[in-house]
Automatic annotation (TrEMBL):
<keyword id="KW-0547">Nucleotide-binding</keyword>
<dbReference type="InterPro" id="IPR003439">
    <property type="entry name" value="ABC_transporter-like_ATP-bd"/>
</dbReference>
<dbReference type="InterPro" id="IPR027417">
    <property type="entry name" value="P-loop_NTPase"/>
</dbReference>
<dbReference type="GO" id="GO:0016887">
    <property type="term" value="F:ATP hydrolysis activity"/>
</dbReference>
<dbReference type="Pfam" id="PF00005">
    <property type="entry name" value="ABC_tran"/>
</dbReference>
<dbReference type="InterPro" id="IPR003593">
    <property type="entry name" value="AAA+_ATPase"/>
</dbReference>
<keyword id="KW-0813">Transport</keyword>
<keyword id="KW-0067">ATP-binding</keyword>
<protein>
    <submittedName>
        <fullName>ABC transporter ATP-binding protein</fullName>
    </submittedName>
</protein>
<dbReference type="InterPro" id="IPR017871">
    <property type="entry name" value="ABC_transporter-like_CS"/>
</dbReference>
<dbReference type="InterPro" id="IPR050763">
    <property type="entry name" value="ABC_transporter_ATP-binding"/>
</dbReference>
<dbReference type="GO" id="GO:0005524">
    <property type="term" value="F:ATP binding"/>
</dbReference>
Length: 324
């Protein structure tokens, strides 16, 4: 559905001059600095996948999304969206693609929400029946009816984001690029938007590429995560795969029926490390790269009869910070 091959983007910016008339001298200067914002990135996304595209500030995420949606032309490499080139076949690609930039709205600031939808429907050449069908469904699902007649500038951030999601989906695209769709929202608004995105992915089979700094979005929604850092691809795989690669340990807390003696526990390798021990309870750090949770429990069972087990997976936010 989405194929990206050796994609790179360089930006050329004039070097700022110092001293008198520096503005004019910078403008006339032939000294340029080259910034490699995206560097030799390749990945492909299958229909119906929900993929997180993450990285620190300035990593090259928005630049990638802009090249995928045909807004920017790559310096080298190739992008195909549903077999089409988004730059050369921009109109055809636009029909298959919905794009949301959470930090900006694509609605008309002073117009009521419903007027913005009318303009967008006309731009996409939707029949009045197709528009009504889409709006009936989306307005209901995202609970937009109470403010359809309100000017966009008067909406709360959560209402505006829901209206922008409807705008991105109005022409019923099968691919969605979402750049920070939950930015600045409260917990309930985030939860509602996540539920909606999950349902359009699972029930309607939309292919979604999500860029966000909110690791809860990624953990709750994405089956796969692509990490970009300083323009380069750092990881492409499942969230569990990312956890395993970073190797932060899982903490296993075990309570035994009776007091235990520690000398029976095999800890000679680095796969299982004792963190604390108190009479009947034991906490160990298990390196899941080297030892499965089942095998760790088998070793722990040798110390006595287990009454209760509690496992703490490494926090995903910590995992991601290690990749950055
Ligand atoms: N038009 C431009 N001209 C020059 N440099 C640019 C331009 N657009 C982006 N850059 C630079 O390219 C790099 C990648 O920027 P980009 O906006 O893609 O990052 P990002 O991962 O989306 O960051 P953030 O999470 O902060 O939004 C940055 O160093 C940025 O300053």
């Amino acid at each position: 559905m989405i194929a990206v091959s050796h994609l790179s983007k360089q930006f050329k910016t004039p070097v700022t001059k110092e001293g008198r008339f520096k503005g004019i001298r910078t403008l006339l200067s032939r000294d340029y600095r080259i910034k490699e914002a995206v560097s030799d990135i390749s990945f492909s996304i299958e229909p119906g996948e929900f993929v997180g595209y993450i990285g620190p500030n300035g990593a090259g995420k928005s630049t990638t999304i802009k090249m995928l949606s045909g807004i920017l032309h790559p310096s080298s490499g190739e992008v195909q969206i549903a077999g089409m080139n988004p730059h050369r076949e921009r109109r055809q690609v636009a029909r298959r693609l919905g794009v949301l930039f959470g930090q900006r709205t694509q609605l008309w600031w002073d117009l009521p929400v419903c007027d913005s939808f009318d303009i967008l429907a006309a731009m996409y050449g939707l029949s009045s029946e197709a528009k009504a069908n889409q709006l009936n469904q989306l307005v209901d699902l995202l609970d937009l009816s109470p403010f359809m007649d309100t000017p966009v500038r008067k909406l709360s951030l959560g209402q505006r984001m829901r209206a922008d999601i409807v705008a991105a989906l109005l022409h019923n695209p099968d691919i969605l690029f979402l750049d920070e769709p939950t930015i600045g929202l409260d917990l309930i608004a985030k939860r509602n938007i996540r539920e909606f995105l999950r349902s359009i992915n699972l029930e309607l089979g939309k292919t979604i590429l999500l860029t966000t700094h909110d690791m809860d979005d990624i953990e709750q929604l994405c089956g796969r995560v692509i990490v970009i850092n300083d323009g380069r691809l750092g990881f492409d795989g499942t969230i569990d795969g990312l956890r395993r690669r970073i190797g932060l340990p899982t903490l296993i807390r075990v309570t035994y029926r009776n007091a235990i003696m520690l000398h029976d526990l095999q800890t000679e390798d680095s796969s299982l490390k004792i963190i604390s021990h108190e009479d009947r309870s034991l906490t160990v750090a298990c390196n899941r790269e080297q030892l499965t949770a089942m095998d760790a429990l088998k070793r722990l069972e040798q110390l006595g009869e287990i009454e209760d087990v509690h496992m703490d997976e490494p926090d995903f936010e910590d995992v991601v910070h290690r990749v950055y």
